[in-house]
Please model this.
Amino acid sequence: MYKGCYEIVENTPVARAVYRMRLLGDTTALTAPGQFVNIQLPGFYLRRPISVANWDSEGMVLLYKVVGQGTEAMSRMAAGEQLDLLVGLGNGFDASKGDKPLLIGGGVGTPPLLGLAKALLGRGVMPQVALGFATHEDRLLVKDFEAMCCQVSVALISENRLVTDLFPELIPLCDYYYACGPEPMLRAVHQAIPLNGQLSFEARMACGFGACMGCTCKTFAGGKRICTEGPVLFKEEIIWET
Model:
């Protein structure tokens, strides 16, 4: 984990209530796609955890949704302003799994899959991508995945389709899956796909580095903290609460 100040160079809307922020600064603490940062916003006590969509040697890209006062204030920040970040939190995806992987994203769970696709392509593996959104206005990163030559399938709730409706055509083409999105979607994915996989969980966090135990998930190995042992868990270790 690294703590430092980062300069905003871009903060623009890219979908309904979703913004793309590019930050310049040290990214050496980012070692795996699916990790996140914890942002200290001026005037707010608790930091905001945001997943990293992509990064390079100069900085990182975050995509975040305005859901409360903190992210609303964040959306009004301008290029040139500074943010205090904890960087390199969480375990991230193990991108070494699968020769024909399926990437499954739901809403603002989609961004960390972009860095994952980059890592998979880096080892010569071309993933299939299945994305689910509420409406056309909520679509994220479809063109970015297509620019990487990924085959992208999209399901919209407004058209009475869920991301799971894409599976009958895609599962026969794949041998592994990676998923990130809201918990109801992850549960449905877990139940629908007879393949091994990794699931990245979203959770409310207070500290973001394991001190408060407030984001624990039940597994066969006991409670695991989403902020440290997660956010990525393997399919076979997850116990769903009834």
